Amino acid sequence: MPYLSEIQNRKILGPGGDEVAKLAxxxxxxxxxxxxxxxxxxxTRAGEHAIRWSDLVSETGHYRVLxxxxxxxxxxxxxxxxxxxxxxxxxxxxxxxxxxxxxxxDLQLEEAGGQLRLVGADVGxxxxxxxxxxxxxxxxxxxxxxxxxxxxxxxxxxVQPIDTGNAANxxxxxxHAKLALLHPADIADIVEDMxxxxxxxxxxxxxxxxxxxTLAEIEPEMQVEIVGDLDxxxxxxxLEEMAPDEAADLLQDLPEEQRxxxxxxxxxxxxxxxxxxxxxxxxxxxxIMTTDFVALPRELTAAAGIxxxxxxxxDPELAYYLYVIDAEGxxxxxxxxxxxxVASPNELLAQIMDPHILKVEVDTPKEDVASLxxxxxxxxxxxVDAGQKLLGIVTVDDVVELMLPRGWKKRSLRSxxx
Length: 418
Prior knowledge:
By secondary structure, this protein is an alpha+beta fold. It contains 20 helices and 19 strands.
């Protein structure tokens, strides 16, 4: 089973046996699990010359063209072609199985039925040793001490090249389908090991929802860098998908001018929610609350309340407590999802609800909010203004983050509930 380092620079002989070139590189279109090698890039005295791989015949220690090289039709590489030596060797790839960024030290090829295919990436020590001709020596030394030289081959279908949009780096020619299938927390771990250009490329290509969930899992300082590197329209789209409190926390760390521009680009409703949160002190209940909550009018029946939930399709943690409000938006009580489901369909929420509800005012110090949630083992506590109007809620995961050092990320209840 050959490796790219073993065939690179092999002689290319002409029909008469004279050396006409060296094999500089091979190229594939990275589709399918194990893409076939379709082109050979030859180094000649006149420069590089790309030909079809099928124009070469493999012989012991070298390759041969069966007709004079100047008669072999030059094959222009398509835009989606990947040159293995130039675009992958010594570059970073995402291992979507191990959820990490690794560096390619060599590429494993396999020949079957006259077809050479790319089957794996060698990210281990062997790849480096092989390229300097020291693999066998290292194997011998390891054998003397009763050890085996480990292999570090990742099957090609489990890796994802990183697209930086820079020709000097790996060019992605397929969508980030594999990367997007990972949990956002895993994507965040991968992204945090990338360069700024690589991070930007990932967030430009992930779908907006996944990008938002991933950004929420990243350290605050890096969040600011990522948002600053993205196109403003793209950054605003991602912020819209984030929970309002998470978006507000991120925006709070941005320069005021940039913060205002991004809020202006957000959809009106989401932008207003974030502006409301930004208006409160970050050390108060208003500063840590989220405006994502379920509030139902007191005059609704139980059946109508259930129908409203079907329409809203709230995240799982938002359905634990259903807040009941009057026509002015004032907090009247709370009803559990269980009580709503088992109630008579025609009963009014005003009859089902518990009017005795723990709540905090918007300027309550966040430490007091945390103590209240911990003391009464609450999943969330509502936040009201001086007129008792319901403004938001503080959830238990917000409180846990308060207790951790800045930058520590805990999966939200939304992620755990999946």
